[in-house]
Amino acid sequence: MAVTFIRTLITIVTLIVLMRLMGKREIGEMQPYEFIITLIIADLACIPMADVSIPLGYGIVAILCLFLLHQLLTLLEQGGLFLRRIISGKPSLVINKNGVDMLELRKNNLGVGDLIESMRTAGYFSFDQLSYAIYEANGSLSAFPNDSKQNDSLPILIIDSGKIDTHNLNLIHVQKDQLISFIESQNTSPKKVEVLTIDGEGKVYLKEKGKKFTILHFDLGDNIKW
To answer: 3-state class of 90 per DSSP?
Structure first.
């Protein structure tokens, strides 16, 4: 037991030193390669601590090799924009002056729901509250607000990539045919709509494929307010 304790202590001290040398980024701020290396180091550290039949030096050497790899990739990343894009990727502009950019979302394997969740985390609830939004290479969302737009009601996603969310439509007590009639009155169809949200005041954010977003009004009547 004393041997296991000593091996564990040595491994933990080594990990603390290496993590401090690797920098002070939080998990959510890590680049993809940093996150992968951290996971592998954690896995390697468990092996010599749990199995006394494996020489402690083997685990330490493997961890040190990964640390050196991290340092090498960090140096390469700082060597220029081209290498940085290859190693860590590049930011994606997912909301621009025309509205939500579905192509950029798909490039990053993201959907409108993922974008809405990231916006809520950043403190924004409506697409027109933002002039621009960028997914950074580490996955965090940088939001640039449109100060002239303030929302007192939470918008609900009704159409995502041409598909009507009937569950959300029922939440606001609107019939599907009512929604379709409203959309057709704008000389378009649900299949051409990339994003459509409606808030409690009836404000509609509508983004058609290949067009700039528009802000409209849907008469909710006395159906529901939120």
So the answer is: coil
Burial annotation 6-33 (CB, 10 A radius, 16+ → b, else e): ebbeebeebbeebeeebeeeeeeebbeb
The residues near 5 (Cβ < 8 Å, ≥ 6 apart) are none
Cα 48 from Cα 59, distance rounded (Å): 6
Report which of residues 22 and 168 the model is more confident about.
Answer: 168
The structure's pTM equals 0.63
Provide the CA 162 distance to its chain's centre, in angstroms.
22
The reported pLDDT for the residue numbered 164 is 92
Pairing of strands 156-160, 141-145: unpaired
Range 186-204 average pLDDT: 92
With contact defined as beta carbons under 8 Å apart, do 106 and 92 qualify?
no
pLDDT higher for 45 or 210?
A: 210
DSSP-derived 3-state class of residue 104: helix
Give exposure, 98-123, as e/b (b: 16+ Cβ within 10 Å). ebbbbebbeeeebebeebbebbeeee
> Residue 164 and residue 114: Cα distance in Å, rounded?
17
